[in-house]
Amino acid sequence: MSSMPLASSGVNFTAITISVGIIFVIGATIAIAVASYFRLQRHRADAVAMAAYRKLAEDAVANQQELRSQLEKLTESVRAVEKLMRDVG
User: Fold this and answer.
1) pTM
2) Could you tell me the residue range of the domain that residue 16 belongs to?
3) Residue 28 resides in a domain
4) DSSP sequence for 39-68
5) Does residue 31 fall inside a structural domain?
6) Residue 10 to residue 14: CA distance in whole angstroms
7) Domain annotation covers residue 1
8) What's the confidence (pLDDT) of residue 8?
9) Tens digits of residue pLDDT in 19-40
10) DSSP string, 2-41
């Protein structure tokens, strides 16, 4: 009986191949879905970080403009004091 052909042993290789193929496709689909989910989460975290940096930049610009206006006022005061000292001296 050991000389019998493999096909007559009752093993259906087509059914095994289709079953393994279906399992492989389902596993690959799950892996792609999980990878896409984590990529989306990373993108969301990057977007939140960029929004925070954008707000920080806007605040820095506003503070810089405020400092420039204060510096202009201080410069005018120093000029007035210098003029007064020249007039007195």
Assistant:
1) 0.53
2) 6-88
3) yes
4) HHHHHHHHHHHHHHHHHHHHHHHHHHHHHH
5) yes
6) 12
7) no
8) 59
9) 999 999 999 999 999 999 999 9
10) TTS-GGGGT--HHHHHHHHHHHHHHHHHHHHHHHHHHHHH
Q: For residues 1 and 11, what is the distance between their CA atoms, to the nearest angstrom?
A: 16
Q: How far apart are the first and last CA of the chain?
A: 128
Q: Residue 1's pLDDT band (boundaries 50, 70, 90)? A: very low
- Residue indicated by tokens 């605040």: 59
What is the 8-class DSSP label of residue 72?
H
Residue 48 lies in a domain: yes
For tokens 């005018």, name the residue: 76
Tally the domains of the chain. 1
Tokens found for residue 21 = 């193929």
For 89, the 3-state DSSP assignment is coil
If pLDDT is split at 50, 70 and 90, which confidence band does 3 have?
low
Residues, the chain = 89
